[in-house]
Amino acid sequence: MMWKISTAALHVTAVAATVAHPPFWPWALGAVAANHLTVTAAGLWPRSSMLGPNWTRLPDTTGADPSVAVSIDDGPDPAVTPRVLDILDRYDAKATFFCIGTRILNQRELAREIVARGHTIENHSYSHPNYFSLLGPGAMAAQVNGGQDVIAEVTGYTPRFFRAPAGLRNPFLDPILCRAGLQLASWTRRGFDTVASDPDLVLQRLSNRLGPRDILVLHDGNAARDSAGWPVIYEVLPRLLERLAERGLTPVTLRSALSAN
Ligand SMILES: [Zn+2]
Asked: 49-88, pLDDT tens digit by residue?
């Protein structure tokens, strides 16, 4: 056990060093074929499947109860996540938290609390760099594997899903995910609630054509504040969960859909 923890700690240190000096993919230097550029541009689009399998909806499990996955990104955040957990409890809803490795390292207890309350934590990279899609294979692998190691070390659960920061990726990502046993997951719709401060607008974006198998995205980390200064998710999440209940849609985790598949 000690060996495992110190190995994980070493790995995390190595990742931190890599992240501090990210070797950018030398876009300008390589003789990049036009075809390659096209594939890259198409794959950068978050909901594209061109670079490999990518969940934009839950799998079709005929006969199962109609369900929706609510995913909550960029935490854990000590100021926001606890209340989000209380809201989920109030509606007996389960969610998928795409957490950032460095934030988990600062909020170990909160990460364990998320799992203890029946939700799942999945991998949203080690440090959520905005330039994720520009990383070379080594730095990208460090982001994926670093996030994976932190979550396993802190919660005891190995993530099964990866969501790229901002949803953007490049051709290196698919083999890295494959080696780590991770399924790429994006979304059906997102509320853009890191920038939109109007809860009505965020809710409308998420529930426009709401239906079975949708994957929706909200944020507990980096959450925009509404006119009263509260994170937008505080108002949007209860109203969204009520809307799901009205339509007979059960909120489930991505992982439960994986095992049902
Ligand atoms: Zn994010």
From this structure: 655 689 999 998 766 789 999 999 999 999 999 999 999 9
CA distances 70 to 62, 73, 123, Å, are 20, 10, 15
CA distances from 140 to 23, 153, 172, 185 (A): 10, 20, 8, 16
Distance 109 CA to ligand 1 centre (A): 21
Least confident interval from 70-74, 127-131, 166-170: 166-170
- Please tell me the distance between residue 86's alpha carbon and the centre of ligand 1 in angstroms: 22
Return the closest-CA partner of residue 25 out of 7, 34, 37, 17.
Answer: 37
Residue 76: asked if its preceding bond is cis (omega within 30°), the reply is: yes
Segment 229-245 mean pLDDT:
97
Counting Cα atoms < 13 Å in the Cβ hemisphere of 66 gives 10
Q: How far is the CA of 212 from the centre of ligand 1 (A)?
A: 24
Residue 253 confidence (pLDDT) above 60:
yes
> Cα of 145 to ligand 1 centre, how many Å?
17
Q: What is the pLDDT of residue 31?
A: 38
